[in-house]
Amino acid sequence: MRIVVTGGSGRLGRTLVSGLADAGHDLVSIDRQPSDRLDRPDVAQLAVDLADADATAAALAATRADALIHLAAIAVPFSAPEDVILRTNAGLAQSVLGGAVRAGIRRVVAASSPTVIGYGAPRGWTPDRLPLDETSPVEPWNAYALSKLLIEQTLDTLRRQTGDQVRYASFRPCFVIAPEEWAGAPTQQGHTVQERLDDPALAAPALFNYVDARDVASFADSLLAALDDIPSGEVFFVGADDALARQPLSDLLPRFHPGTAEAASALTGDSPAFSSAKAARLLGWHPSRSWRTELAGSPTPASVS
Ligand SMILES: NC(=O)c1ccc[n+]([C@@H]2O[C@H](COP(=O)([O-])OP(=O)(O)OC[C@H]3O[C@@H](n4cnc5c(N)ncnc54)[C@H](O)[C@@H]3O)[C@@H](O)[C@H]2O)c1
Q: Which atom, in ligand 1's list, is nearest to the CA of 8?
């Protein structure tokens, strides 16, 4: 498949592009600027400001791609003023996803975020049940989470325009850990994976979720392979099979998220707060990496079997 990835120079994008190229696809990355960290001469890198709808439409049409994966966004909550995050992410979704459809791209996929669920809301958050899955209610409480919900709904909007001749899906990747971060490079939040494990307060805002970027690449490969055969417009959580924690979440979650004790009692052992069971059921996809095997020198957790 010829696949165009927006935001291919980014933290997730570099690994996604490389992983899909390794899987045998023909890749085009579109980003504001090419990445010299994407050391792949076989991947075409186009420099386009995707906020420019005309330039975006022209670039997408020129790719003659079979599929698009839209990652480009302001990727961190509160990293810019709320109005800028909302305008940027929702606007990019319009220009990129709408542009892809008008360019004749038949498979259109976008990155959403688990934050649409609304955990960490200042006035409290009480889930009915854990782990969270795609049927859990969405209650965004900041502009980033709202922009991600809008991206999911932009796909729904386009689906109502085109019907099933174009296939759509969105995915909500958990806290992405790129391969170099296992070896000590800073994560998206600035600290290392080791520090995130050592201080549960660091991983608590994301409910101790995580996923290896290479597993997101294998998810995307499975998704694109299945997209013509599953219902169009599905949303998927994409996370590791365990929590990024040394203690069970039944203990940790209530400490950091008051109101979760009852639901969290189901999260014994190393169970994560997010379920990827839908991706397993519909796509046959399973994450293959865990911090327990990837983190060099990681001590064996004493309290978790
Ligand atoms: N990293 C995570 O833990 C995580 C978790 C959930 C969802 N996501 C989502 O996954 C996607 C990728 O995240 P990431 O961590 O790789 O982010 P990132 O910031 O590392 O990469 C985003 C890329 O988009 C590009 N971009 C932004 N605006 C652009 C524009 N106007 N024109 C062209 N390029 C533009 C940037 O140059 C950058 O390379 C985002 O949509 C993010 O919201 C990420």
A: 39
How many independent structural domains does the chain possess? 1
Distance from Cα 207 to the centre of ligand 1, integer Å: 21
pLDDT at site 300: 45
In this prediction, residue 297 carries a pLDDT of 54
The alpha helices in the chain, defined as continuous H runs, are 11-22, 53-63, 82-93, 99-102, 143-162, 179-182, 193-198, 200-203, 213-226, 249-256, 261-264, 277-283, 291-294
Does residue 23 fall inside a structural domain?
Answer: yes
Interval between CA 195 and ligand 1 midpoint (Å): 23
Which residue in 267, 193, 281, 200 sits closest to 237, CA to CA?
281
Q: pLDDT under 70 in the chain at which residues?
A: 296-305
pTM of the model: 0.96
pLDDT attached to residue 305: 35
> Which three-class secondary structure state does DSSP give residue 107?
strand
Q: Is 239 in the pocket of ligand 1 (CB under 6 A)?
A: no
Give the domain range for residue 13: 2-175+212-240+274-287
Ligand 1 in reach of 176 Cβ (< 6 A)? yes
